TrEMBL record:
Function: Mitochondrial intermembrane chaperone that participates in the import and insertion of some multi-pass transmembrane proteins into the mitochondrial inner membrane. Also required for the transfer of beta-barrel precursors from the TOM complex to the sorting and assembly machinery (SAM complex) of the outer membrane. Acts as a chaperone-like protein that protects the hydrophobic precursors from aggregation and guide them through the mitochondrial intermembrane space.
Name of this protein: Mitochondrial import inner membrane translocase subunit
Secretion signal span: none
Membership in a protein family: Belongs to the small Tim family.
GO cellular component entries: mitochondrial inner membrane
Chain ranges of the Tim10-like domain: 21-83
Any Gene Ontology biological process: protein insertion into mitochondrial inner membrane
Subunit structure: Heterohexamer.
Membrane topology: Peripheral membrane protein
Assigned keywords, A-Z: Chaperone, Disulfide bond, Membrane, Metal-binding, Mitochondrion, Mitochondrion inner membrane, Protein transport, Translocation, Transport, Zinc
Molecular function terms from GO: metal ion binding
SUPFAM superfamilies recorded: Tim10-like
Notes on the domains: The twin CX3C motif contains 4 conserved Cys residues that form 2 disulfide bonds in the mitochondrial intermembrane space.
Amino acid sequence: MSFLGRGAQSPAGGINQERIEMAINEIDMVSDVFNRIVSSCHSKCISPRYAEGDLNKGESVCIDRCVAKFFEVNKKVGEKMQAAGANAQATGSTSFAL
């Protein structure tokens, strides 16, 4: 079965629009995360005055750490939101705090 619905045809025999929308949304989200990482880590790690065409060792290390921290924070926020959502579902509440 294809993600875009090629393996399993929709009842009308056409393209599965719902799966295409899901794929487009996922691409948009991944692109947004990538762009935020690039913007954030570039401003923190790379001097605005370019002296060389390649990254130097310090810039490379900074970018590696920046990206790792970005994903670690993203993971922790996701875990907190899942826990808060599960807690809200268990108690019947619709609001939660991080």
